[in-house]
């Protein structure tokens, strides 16, 4: 059986060049980057060069990049760090109902600590309204957190417009760009973003490493205490091999950004053409005009998501029903609930296909054709 992996939004395989780079660093640069001897300095050079690559990829400065253990820590650090540092100026935070749980659960934690959080709804395309952001702003709002591109349905939010709006307000602007980074061109200055979260394993890098961009001059209270790593902003000895692998993945992603966007758009067309030719009843969830190139979320009326996933897996096709962080949950996707309402059948019959490294048109065709067979069998 030819197995096809179409769940790259959950995690992606490491690129061979990333593995080679990590192995080289593990063998040759084992020193502690905080040590002043030659071994430590060699590791420090790897960190500095990697940090520059990541800063350049988003138009940031070298000292604005903090290495973290991934997207979850980056989101937590951004929200909690700003909340604690600026609570004397206000305790109101704005976010959306469709954020990743790394943001939503952190906001719920902050609510228990005395902060007031406004959770903005989205429309049926998964888009938040800039006007609703404007209306929700208060004099005591200190932070607005809106994800760049949604991990479940792919909808890209009006980040630049929100950033422009906040230029006239004290609130800082954070975006979870974990799903968009490496597939969409991002410039923190062009989008007026103050904090931005990224994770390596979504772009064919290693798991357990990410970065948080914090604009220079913004106060931030760390919540890990220990050494003075990352300019006293994140304690703990840096994982030099993982960071080196991350930097390699960033370089590959940036150099192939346009090529990948066009390729994945063609994969979406292949899948939908096959469904159309087969007369399959389906609805695309999310925005067709403003969407991440690699994510395609589809509702199949009359089907059940659990049955679809089991049958697709038996056919060798790996897809998902949404966020991997809620795998095994019996609750419907909070993203789809926000878009369509809790009673909507689309919360119970939607599948996410997501493309990436090593996928071919033949793989995509195979996945679509198997999906058609399964739907016809289930609907009999």
From TrEMBL:
PROSITE patterns reported in the protein's UniProt record: AA_TRANSFER_CLASS_5
Domain Aminotransferase class V: 4-365
EC class of the enzyme, as a word: transferase
The enzyme's E.C. designation: 2.8.1.7
Catalytic activity: (sulfur carrier)-H + L-cysteine = (sulfur carrier)-SH + L-alanine
Cofactor(s) in the UniProt record: pyridoxal 5'-phosphate
InterPro entries named in the record: Aminotrans_V_dom (IPR000192), Aminotrans_V_PyrdxlP_BS (IPR020578), Cysteine_dSase (IPR016454), PyrdxlP-dep_Trfase (IPR015424), PyrdxlP-dep_Trfase_major (IPR015421), PyrdxlP-dep_Trfase_small (IPR015422)
Gene3D superfamilies named among the record's database cross-references: 1.10.260.50, Aspartate Aminotransferase, domain 1, Type I PLP-dependent aspartate aminotransferase-like (Major domain)
Domain of life, per lineage: Bacteria
GO MF terms held by the record: cysteine desulfurase activity; iron-sulfur cluster binding; metal ion binding
Keywords: Iron, Iron-sulfur, Metal-binding, Pyridoxal phosphate, Transferase
UniProt cross-references to NCBIfam families, sorted A to Z: PRK02948.1 (NF002806)
Family: Belongs to the class-V pyridoxal-phosphate-dependent aminotransferase family. NifS/IscS subfamily.
Name assigned to this protein: cysteine desulfurase
């Amino acid at each position: 059986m030819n197995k096809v992996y179409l769940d790259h939004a959950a995690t992606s395989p490491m690129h061979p060049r990333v593995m080679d780079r990590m192995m080289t660093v593990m063998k040759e640069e084992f020193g502690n980057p905080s040590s002043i001897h030659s071994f430590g300095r060699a590791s420090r050079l790897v960190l500095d060069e990697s940090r520059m690559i990541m800063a350049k990829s988003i138009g940031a400065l070298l000292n604005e990049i903090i290495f973290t253990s991934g997207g979850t820590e980056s989101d937590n650090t951004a929200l909690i760090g700003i909340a604690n540092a600026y609570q004397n100026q206000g305790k109101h935070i704005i976010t959306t109902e469709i954020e990743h749980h790394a943001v939503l659960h952190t906001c719920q934690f902050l609510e228990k600590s005395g902060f007031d959080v406004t959770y903005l709804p989205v429309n049926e395309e998964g888009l938040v309204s800039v006007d609703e952001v404007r209306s929700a702003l208060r004099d005591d709002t200190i932070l607005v957190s809106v994800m760049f591109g949604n991990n479940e349905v792919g909808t890209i939010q009006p980040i630049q417009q929100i950033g422009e709006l906040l230029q006239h307000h004290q609130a800082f602007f954070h975006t979870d760009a974990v799903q968009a980074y490496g597939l969409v061109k991002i410039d923190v200055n062009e989008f007026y973003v103050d904090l931005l979260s990224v994770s390596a394993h979504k772009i064919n890098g290693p798991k357990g490493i990410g970065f948080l961009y914090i604009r220079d001059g913004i106060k931030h209270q760390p919540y890990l205490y220990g050494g003075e790593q990352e300019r006293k902003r994140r304690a703990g000895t840096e994982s030099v091999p993982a960071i080196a692998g991350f930097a390699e993945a960033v370089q590959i992603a940036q150099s192939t950004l346009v090529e990948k966007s066009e390729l994945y758009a063609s994969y979406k067309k292949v899948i939908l053409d096959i469904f159309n030719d087969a007369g399959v009843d389906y609805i695309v969830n999310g925005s067709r005009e403003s969407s991440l190139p690699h994510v395609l979320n589809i509702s199949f009326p009359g089907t059940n998501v659990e049955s679809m996933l089991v049958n697709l897996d038996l056919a060798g096709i790996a897809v998902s029903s949404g966020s991997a962080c809620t795998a095994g949950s019996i609750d419907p996707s909070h993203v789809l609930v926000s878009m369509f309402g809790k009673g909507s059948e689309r919360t119970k019959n939607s599948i996410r296909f997501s493309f990436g490294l090593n996928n071919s048109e033949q793989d995509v065709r195979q996945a679509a054709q198997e999906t058609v067979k399964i739907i016809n069998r289930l609907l009999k």
